Amino acid sequence: HPPQPFGPKGGRKMAEEGEEEEVQQPEALTTELITGGLKTLAKTVDGTGFALTHFELPDSNVGDIEALAGYKHLRYLSMPGNAISDLKPLSGIEFMLSLDVSRNALVNVELPSLAYLQVLNLAGNKLKAVQGMVMPMLRHLDMSGNELETVGGLEGNPALEVLLLHDNKLTSSDGLGLGSLKKITLTGNQIANVAGLAGLVGVEELDLTGNAVEDLAGLPAEGKIAKLNLQGCKVDAVEKLDALAEIKTLKELSLLENPVMEGFD
Fold first, then answer.
1. Structurally, what CATH architecture does the domain formed by 27-99 represent?
2. What is the pTM assigned to this prediction?
3. Are strands 50-56 and 76-78 parallel, antiparallel or unpaired?
4. What is d(CA 17, CA 44) in angstroms, rounded to the nearest whole number?
5. CATH superfamily of 127-264
6. Phi, psi dihedral angles at 18 (to 5 degrees)
7. Torsion angle of alpha carbons 237, 242, 245, 249, nearest 10°?
8. 50-56 and 38-43 beta bridge pairing
9. Three-class SS of the chain
10. pLDDT of 93-145, one tens digit each?
11. Cβ atoms of residues 55 and 78 within 8 Å
12. What is the pLDDT of residue 69?
C-alpha cells in the first residue's frame, strides 16, 4: 500500500496547501541585509576616501528600502524580484549609474533627475503611466512587462539609445519617436497607428508584432529601418503599404497574419 498522509484526514497535505496560500508580508531592509549585499570598494567621487559602491539583493521580499537612504556613494544597485513600491529613499544617491528594480511592486516612478544614471530596469512591475522622466545620461531603459497605457516626456533623456516597452497596454506610439534611439521594442501592445514613430531615425529594426496597427503612414522615411515586422497586426488593404515605398533602407518586411495577406499562400 502507498504511504498515507499523516493524520486521519491527510493533515500533512492540508498543512502544505495552507502554507502555499499564506502570503508573505514584505520585509524592511535591515542593516544585516545591507551588509550582506554590499561589495566593490572604490574611491568616492569627490576623491576624499573609499566606499562600497555596489549593492545586490535579489528575490528577498524586501519592500521598505528606507535604510538605503544613507548610502550616498552607491553607484550600482540591483534588487530584482522584491516587493518595493516606493523609490523615493533613493533620491539622495546622486552618483547612481545603474538601477535594477525589475519584478517589484512599483505603480509609479518617483525619482528625481539622477544626473549620472545610465541604466534603469523597471521591467515586470505594475506601472500604468510614465510621464516626464528626466535623466540626462540615461542610455538603457527597460519598462517591458508592465501595464503601461501611456508613456510621455521621454524627450528629457537625450542620450537614450535602448527603450524596451514590449508586453504593455500601449494604444498609441505618440512620444516614442526619439531620434537618439537605436533600439525600441513594442511587441505585444495595442498600438493602432505608427505616426508617433516618425522621429526614429536611428533604429534599424522595428518589431510591432501583435499590435493593432492598421495605418503605416508616419514611419521615418529618412531613417535606417532595414527590418520591419508587422506580424499579427491589422493592415487590411494593399494601398496602405504605399507608405513603405518612402523607406529606401527597408530590406525585410513581415506581414504574416494580417488581413491584407488573406488569399496569399
1. Alpha-Beta Horseshoe (3.80)
2. 0.88
3. parallel
4. 50
5. Ribonuclease Inhibitor (3.80.10.10)
6. -60, -40
7. -40
8. antiparallel
9. CCCCCCCCCCHHHHHHHHHHHCCCCCEECCHHHHHHHEEEEEECCCCCCEEEEEEECCCCCEEECHHHHHCCCCCEEECCCCCCCCCHHHCCCCCCCEEECCCCCCCCCCCCCCCCCCEEECCCCCCCEEECCCCCCCCEEECCCCCCCEEECHHHCCCCCEEECCCCCCCCCCCCCCCCCCEEECCCCCCCECHHHCCCCCCCEEECCCCCCCECCCCCCCCCCCEEECCCCCCCCHHHHHHHHHCCCCCEEECCCCHHHCCCC
10. 999 999 999 999 999 998 888 999 999 999 999 999 998 889 999 999 999 99
11. yes
12. 94
Q: Which residue has the cell 515605398?
A: 245
Closest by Cα among 207, 211, 177 to 193: 211
- Each domain of the chain, given as residue ranges in start order, spans 27-99, 127-264
Which grid coordinates are listed for 242?
504605399
Q: Which three cell numbers stand for residue 95?
A: 552618483
- Grid cell listed for 74: 552607491
Count of Cβ atoms closer than 10 Å to residue 110 Cβ: 10
Residues 102/142, Cβ–Cβ less than 8 Å: yes
